[in-house]
Specification:
The complex is a heterodimer of chains A (366) and B (209). By secondary structure, chain A is mostly helical. With 209 residues, chain B is of the alpha/beta class. Helix content of chain B is 31%, strand content 29%. Chain B has a 6-stranded mixed beta sheet, with helices on both faces. In chain B, strands 2-1-4-5 form a 4-stranded antiparallel beta sheet, with helices on one face. Classes of the chains: A mainly alpha (366), B alpha/beta (209). The interface between A and B is large, with 36 and 38 residues.
Chain lengths: 366, 209
């Protein structure tokens, strides 16, 4: 079993944490940067007392469990991981235990938090709630293991699930600016859903907060900043997608302008939910012109974030540091009432400059 | 035709290939070398896919400066192509056709001759490796290139397709003046193709045989 788990560790667990470094960083920043220890303790104690809040926590864990399960299934589908089907040659018990360990390793983010909740649950003598927390963890682990077992017994992906959406899409010609959008729908549906959910909720929250006090348009611009930061993971996925599956595009005689336009169209399409949410929830005394400028600002931030990925030799740590300081800089610029359209124009210009300078020199180092 | 000067390709400070000065004339050329010798890296660099140190010129067009004009003339078929499996080959080939400014009906003609049109509207994920390879080979013949690089063109495809590839290479060379760089660790059938030069890629260098 040790060897089997070692293979899972190298092929799946490491890959998951590598690809989701930004997501985990964002969660950690929110959980331990934005919230203080005392707030966590209050939250946990309330969750242990209120079944509705505890259900909400379980729902979040279940969504996270679904995310890691879908990620593993996606890896199992890829041709380069076909060797993992050799796991079937191990005894069912060893295999099942290895799958349980695999799932446990992947849900560490929620599992470790659940340990803290169990600790407080024991202190507060909330035995029933502690039981629920232990049960949900066991369910998440065992359910994941059963799903992987089911999948590993069916090596041909086409046997496992039909793909009605793919068949439908295949009837129409996909323009190149939709290649990445379809990648997200096909390969990262949970990421797409969670990111869109997060960004739309942020915008709804900001729009509803606006009329409650004497706020000005800077509050909406701050919301835009959070939304664009939420799209960082898409920028990383785009860079990965291009270098992994569409490397041949670098051999195509497309001008810089054509390439930039493709990126712009792809991200504009991805921003449609936010545009709808903003248009429907826009505060009464905010003009639609400002809304358009705000959307351009969000688009420009994402655009800049995308293009800085073409700069070589920037480690993940260094990238996150730069992202953090850039966020602080834009926060200050917004607070000093710098017009969003001015920031958008500067962002677009820098992005185009970085692209021209680095695109053909960039290299993907997984 | 193709000029490579002071070329150096490294990964993580590990030298893969170094070429001081290599002038390749028009014609069909065969690059031979064992697995991992750097053939694909060289081809990908010439195609403008991989960054490198040095200078690569094709008909005096610089790979990095004349990005559009250069790429209209230089095409590549990869050894082991990897495409998005949820797209159809038709989606991908239409994109390449448009980008390469291929003449009308060229795509259909090539697809028909290689038998790609029988399956090209299904998602790529349902293809065998040979079917994917044929997509890659087809894409290299699109447009009006003057240099086509076929990296391991004969692997994974059936005998009938091998014959078609030979005929396409011959036709493009004799009737359209297209030069070819072919890489393989297998022997090509010399009677079928007029191989002009053979280059050996080994010990991180390229030498003419």
């Amino acid at each position: 079993m040790k060897n089997l788990f070692r293979i899972f560790n190298l092929a799946i667990i490491k890959e998951y944490y590598r690809q989701n470094a930004v997501f985990i960083f964002a969660v950690m920043m929110f959980a331990f940067g934005f919230l203080r220890a005392i707030e966590h303790i209050t939250f946990i104690k309330n969750a242990l007392k209120l079944p509705s809040l505890l259900s909400f926590v379980f729902l979040a864990w279940a969504l996270h469990g679904l995310k890691v399960t879908l990620f593993t299934l996606r890896l199992l589908e890829s041709k380069q991981n076909e060797f993992l089907y050799h796991a079937r040659l191990f005894s069912p018990i060893k295999r099942f235990l290895a799958f349980c360990l695999l799932q446990l390793s992947l849900i560490q983010l929620t599992f470790l938090y659940s340990l803290a909740m169990i600790k407080f649950g024991i202190e507060e003598k909330r035995w029933l709630e502690v039981g629920y927390i232990i049960t949900i963890n066991i369910v998440l682990i065992v359910a994941g293991a059963f799903i992987y077992e089911y999948r590993i017994q069916r090596p041909n992906a086409e046997q496992v699930r039909s793909r009605p959406m793919q068949k439908l899409f295949a009837r129409f010609l996909t323009p190149p600016y939709l290649f990445f959008v379809r990648y997200l729908f096909s390969k990262q549906p949970v990421l797409l859903l969670l990111t869109k959910l997060f960004c739309c909720l942020v915008l709804m929250g900001i729009c509803n907060l606006y009329p409650t006090d004497d706020y000005d348009e800077r509050l909406l611009a701050l919301g835009g900043l959070f939304v664009s930061a939420g799209h960082t993971v898409f920028c990383q996925q785009y860079f990965y997608f291009e270098n992994r599956f569409l490397l041949i595009a670098k051999n195509l005689p497309l001008s810089h302008m054509q390439r930039l336009l493709n990126y712009l169209l792809a991200y504009s399409i991805l921003l449609i939910p936010e545009i709808i949410v903003l248009a429907r929830n826009l505060p009464d005394n905010v003009s639609y012109i400002f809304m358009v400028l705000l959307i351009l600002f969000i688009l420009s931030m994402i655009f800049l974030n995308h293009h800085v990925h073409y700069i070589n030799n920037v480690s993940n740590d260094a990238f996150m540091q730069r992202l953090f300081f850039a966020g602080i800089l834009f926060l200050l610029l917004i607070m000093f009432k710098i017009p969003v359209i001015l920031m958008a124009l500067v962002n677009f210009s820098i992005a185009a400059f970085v692209f021209r300078k680095h695109y053909y020199l960039s290299e993907f180092n997984p | 035709m193709l000029s490579i000067k002071n070329f150096l390709k490294s990964y993580n400070n590990h030298k893969i290939l170094e070429v001081q000065d290599l002038q390749i004339p028009e014609g069909i050329h065969w690059f031979k070398g064992i697995n991992g010798s750097g053939k694909s890296t060289l081809f990908r660099s010439i195609a403008g896919i991989l960054p490198y140190q040095g200078q690569i010129l094709f008909n005096n067009l610089d790979c990095r400066k004349d990005v559009v004009a250069y790429r209209l003339l230089v095409n590549l078929s990869e050894a082991e192509p990897l495409y998005p499996d949820y797209l159809s080959a038709y989606d991908l080939l239409k994109f390449i056709t448009e980008a390469k400014k291929a003449p009308v009906d060229q795509l259909n003609t090539l697809a028909e001759s290689l038998g790609v049109n029988k399956y090209w509207k299904s998602p790529i994920g349902t293809y065998s490796s040979g079917m994917q390879k044929k997509i890659s080979l087809l894409s290299a013949f699109l447009g009006t290139p003057k240099l086509i690089m076929l990296d391991e063109p004969l692997i994974t495809i059936d005998d009938r397709s091998v014959q078609i590839v030979y005929e396409l290479v011959k036709d493009y060379y004799e009737n359209r003046g297209v030069s070819f760089l072919l890489s393989s660790h297998q022997d090509f059938r010399f009677e079928k193709l007029a191989i002009k030069n053979m280059y050996l890629v080994q010990n991180q260098a390229v030498t003419q045989q």
